[in-house]
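Researcher: Sequence of LysR substrate-binding domain-containing protein follows. Predict its structure.
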Amino acid sequence: MIGVTLFVRESTELVVAVLPSFGFSWLLPRLPRFQQLQPNISVRLQPSLALSNLARESVDVGIRMGKGDWEGVEQYLLFHDETLVVAAPHFNGGVHPQTPEEIIGSNIIFNMESWQPWCQAAGLDREVPRIGLCSNDSNLVLQAVRLGQGIALERRSLVHDAIQRGELVQLSPVIAPYPYPYWLVLPNRERSETKQQVFSSWLKHDVAEYLNEQDHGSKQRRPAHLTRPAERDASL
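Model: Prediction complete. Tokens:
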């Protein structure tokens, strides 16, 4: 694999603070490749919804979602996400809703994502009533979807691998941009440690591979290049 040129020769621990949903669905399946490249680095995942005080909590690397305007840390843009509608292959006996109208009339499992951008992209001028099962935990929502209990609007980063494995299906080609991109966040230090450098390099490479797998033509998405704050998109 290209993209990782340094090698850590002494045993060390890398603490990664990550959103639980992104850690479970995107990062965890890819970590074995990093561990094969860097067997001397023990990775400790620290699930967290809020941005940790990296220095105070001894966190080496954070993967966050937001506007990228946090103070006291170095932040590097990873990628923009988007939302799409998914279901289990066996949902409704395999008879899936086809049109946007049929989709919003189905049994929806709600998370914290708003359906309004997706409805606008689908040409629908109406609200989707939040009736039925709802959770602010995307892992619970996706498990309910896998069980065939309903459909859900989720971020592509959380469902891409499951779609590739055939566990979920995308019900419609309609997608909507997600307002908050993912960022790599590092403690504000004069010099980053080698373990942070190799993880950042590996993450950059795997994000680029992931984006290259996408064939959805979104103009917002770009390969990971770890843009420094002064260089990032002014719209963020």
